[in-house]
Amino acid sequence: MQMIRRNFLSVMGLGMLGAGKHLRLPDPKTVSDDDYWAQVRMQYPLTHDRVYLNTGGLGPASYAVIDAVQQTMMDLQRISEHGHRKITEARHPVADFFRVPPETIAFTRNATEANATIASGLTFLEPGDEVIIETHAHPGGAIPWMSRQKQHGIRVRAFEPDPESAAGNLARIEALISPRTRVIQVSHLTAPTGIVMPVTQIAGLAQANNLWFHVDGAQSAGAFPVDLESIGCDSYGTSGHKWMGATHGTGLLYIRQERLEDVMPTEVGAYSDNGTFDIPDQLAYNETAVRYECGTRDATKIVGMQAAIRMLNEIGMERVAAYGKSLGVYLHNGLDEIDSVTVLTPQDPALRAGITTFQTAGVPCREVYRRLAQDFKLRCRIVTERGLDALRVSTHIFNNKAECDRVLEAVEQIAAGK
C-alpha cells in the first residue's frame, strides 16, 4: 500500500510539473521524521527501479528545479531574449547561500571551470613557484595545476590526506610549505574517501604564510552549510549539479573582492568589461566577478540553481547535513560488521559527511560494482584513484535507511561469495 501511494504521488508530481507546479514539503514538526524524508524523496523524478547512491558524481534535480528550467526556457523562447535580468536576480540568493556578497561570485559550467580559472589566472605565479594540493584531488582540481606546471614551470607538490585527524592534515600541509610555496588548494570534502578537510584552519595557515588558499568545493556545496566568509579562503569553486541538486552544467566561482585583480580572466569577451570598452585600446574589466562570465549565458540553468538552493533552504542546511551524515554513519557501522570489508572513510563524524567508501578483500571493486548494479539495482561509484580499488556510496536527502540496508545485505552476500 505504501509503494502504491508513493507511486501515485510521484505520478501526481509529474502532472503538477507539467502545470508549472511542484509538491510542497510539509512542516517537519507536523509529520514523523520518516514521513518527512519520504516526502522529500517524492520531490525527485528518480526511478524506483534502482537505488541511486552516486550524488558525489552527479546529483539528481528535483521537480521544482526542472520546472523552473523548463518554464524559464519557454518564457525566454517566446520572446527570444537572453534573460540577463534573471541571472542578475539569481546572483543574490546564490551568494547568500554561501554567505558572501553577490559581487564576488561568477557562474560557471562546473567546479572544473572554476578551479581552472584560478590555476590559469593567478598573475603572481612564476616558474619554480610551488602549489600544494592533496593526492586525492579530483582530476578537475588537479589537472588545471598540472597543466600550468607543464606549460609554465610551476611545481605541484602533494600530500596524502590523513583520514584520522584534522590536525594531521594541517601538519602534512605545513610540512610541505617552503620559501617557494605560493598556493594551497584542498578539496573541502575529498571525493575518493569523503574526508572533511579543516579548511578554516588551513585558511589561517595560508594567511600566516601569505599564501593563496583555494577550496575545491565540488563535494561540499549542498552537502553541508558552507560559509565562505567564515572559512576565510581566497577562492572557492563548486558544481551545482552534485549535492546542490541543480541541472547539469552549472557551477560557481567565488573570489574575495580584494583579490580579484590577482586572477586574470583567461576567457574573456562580451560582459567581461566594465562598460567603457572601445576599440582599439580601451578596456577595463568588470569591477566584480562577472568579469569571468563572458558571452551569452544559459539563464535557464542559473534559475534552476536558484530553485535548488530554495529547496535546500526550505529543508534547512543543518538538517540536510545531519541527515546525509546519519545515513553515512549507519552504513559505516553496518559495513564494519561484515568480515573482509574495510571502510576507508573516517569513523569520526567530524571528519565525514555523506560519503562512505569501502573495500572488499578478495573481490575487485569492478566486480563488486557490477554485482551491486546488475543483481541488486544499486548505483554506486568505483574508486580506483590512488590504487584504492574501492566502492563509494553517497547518501543524500532522497535516500533512507532501508536503502542502506539493501547495500549492507548486498555487500554481505558478495563478500561471502554468494
What characteristics describe this protein?
disordered N terminus, seven-stranded mixed sheet, four-stranded antiparallel sheet, alpha/beta, 418 residues, single chain
Provide a concise account of the structure shown.
This protein is α/β, with parallel strands linked by helices. Helix content is 41%, strand content 14%.
The counted number of beta strands is: 13
Q: What is the rounded distance between the termini?
A: 32 Å
Strand/helix succession: HHEHHEHEHEHEHEHEEHHEEHEEEH
Q: Given the structure, what is the number of helices?
A: 13
* Strand content range: 5-15%
Order of strands across the main sheet: 2-8-7-6-5-3-4
Round the mean pLDDT to the nearest integer and report it. 93
Major sheet size, sense and barrel closure: 7 strands, mixed
How helical, in percent, are the residues? Answer: 40-55%
Secondary structural class: alpha/beta
Global Rg: 22 Å
Unreliable sequence segments: 1-21
Morphology: globular
Task: Describe the protein's architecture and organization.
- With 418 residues, the protein is of the alpha/beta class.
- The N terminus is likely disordered.
- Helix 3 runs antiparallel to helix 10, helix 11 packs parallel to helix 13 and helix 12 crosses helix 13.
- The strands form 3 sheets. The protein has a 7-stranded mixed beta sheet with strand order 2-8-7-6-5-3-4, with helices on both faces. A 4-stranded antiparallel beta sheet has the order 9-10-13-12. A two-stranded parallel ribbon has the order 1-11.
- 41% of the residues lie in helices and 14% in strands.
- The two termini are 32 Å apart.
- The chain has 13 helices and 13 strands.
